[in-house]
Design a protein that fits this description.
Strand content: 5-15%
Order of helices and strands: HHHHHHHHEEEHHHHH
Helix content: 40-55%
Shape: elongated
């Protein structure tokens, strides 16, 4: 019988180990030790809190915030169901109960898929570093999310209505920059004036660019059109007249002088959409979708759109070439 370092026996060892025993049976001085896979790597994670810190390490601030929100809900569920148990006590049945709970709440498929993926990611990481013996999350399936991208693309006329519905200069430039740059909320709310620099366009016109920090803390430069750069320049002039607009000041400043929160930015876009008579579902990310779709419609190379948006894969950008709510191949048939 083989023994682990903790003295545990393994009566049902695979044939592979039995063969290994036979091949080594003549070596009386050979001591065979099978490591107990439940032994945690003490230099990796000693408890749930340390595991979560290691798992979140290196991820962007916005990703950490999203993961922490999802994980807090899951841990609350586990605490209530298992009476303050550790993550190592969670079983497949517990994860299935959590999945059922999310469906019972009537959440959107995409939201459920994200929350389950968060938990699956944690358990996968935990097994990878030896914290868990088994990855109980591997058996949990996430719901298939319908590709409704076409429903979330504003046409160019709707974008103009959105811009015209905003009176406040800061908010109008913010919405314009979402559309013009294709930037994410986490990228534009962190923008400082030092990241906006003047330059010449390929045709020699005076314009400028912004440097944003995207996913994975990767920086990318986005060249703006002269009209959008001029709008940004006028905003800075207004900021300077109010005692702001310095290189370290946020481009989109709150009344208290700090950066606008994600919630404030969402509210600005939602209120503008409501004033423009658009769907209540419109969000900042819809303007990112619009940027991709409209620029491709106007003939921008797909690889250039990929670089502007900071997509990892060309396949992600190519989705927009198929998401045309106002066009289909049937329009090209004479029937």
């Amino acid at each position: 019988m083989l023994h682990s370092e903790r003295g545990a026996t393994y009566p049902g060892l695979p044939v592979l180990f039995e063969d290994a025993m036979k091949s080594l049976s003549s070596h009386k001085d050979t001591e065979i030790v099978v490591r107990d896979r439940s032994v945690r790597h003490r230099n990796e994670a000693d408890d749930d809190e340390q595991l979560i810190r290691l798992w979140l390490h290196g991820k962007s601030d916005s990703t950490q915030e999203a993961y922490e929100r999802d994980l807090t809900q899951f841990l609350s569920f586990v605490d209530e169901a298992l009476n303050d148990a550790d993550l190592s006590d969670v079983t497949l049945r517990d994860l299935q109960d959590w999945s059922d709970e999310l469906f019972d709440r009537g959440l959107a498929q995409a939201t459920i898929a994200r929350k389950l993926s968060t938990v699956k990611s944690l358990f996968s990481f935990g097994q990878k570093i030896g914290y868990f013996v088994f990855n109980v999350g591997a058996a949990i399936k996430t719901p298939t999310v319908a590709d409704d991208l076409a429903e979330r693309i504003l046409d160019q006329e709707a974008v103009q209505r959105l811009l015209e519905a905003v009176d406040k200069q800061r908010d109008r430039v913010l919405i314009r920059l979402f559309y013009a740059s294709g930037g994410r909320v986490s990228e534009l709310n962190a923008l400082r004036w030092r990241s906006a620099t003047p330059r010449k366009s390929s045709s020699g016109e005076s314009t400028g660019q912004i440097m944003v920090r995207g996913k994975g803390d990767k920086n990318r430069s986005i060249l703006l059109s002269p009209p959008t750069w001029n709008a940004l320049t006028r905003l800075r002039e207004a900021e300077r007249s109010s005692g702001f607009g310095g290189s370290e000041d946020p481009v989109f400043r709150s009344r208290k002088g700090g950066v606008l929160s994600r919630q404030q930015i969402w509210r600005i876009v939602k209120e503008a959409a409501r004033a423009a008579g658009l769907s209540d579902a419109v969000s900042p990310h819809w303007l990112r979708h619009a940027h991709a779709s409209h620029s491709l419609d106007e003939g921008a190379p797909v690889h250039l759109v990929k670089e502007t948006l900071g997509h990892k894969s060309l396949a992600t950008t190519s989705r927009y070439t198929h998401a045309k709510p106002d066009d289909s191949s049937s329009n090209y048939l004479d029937v």
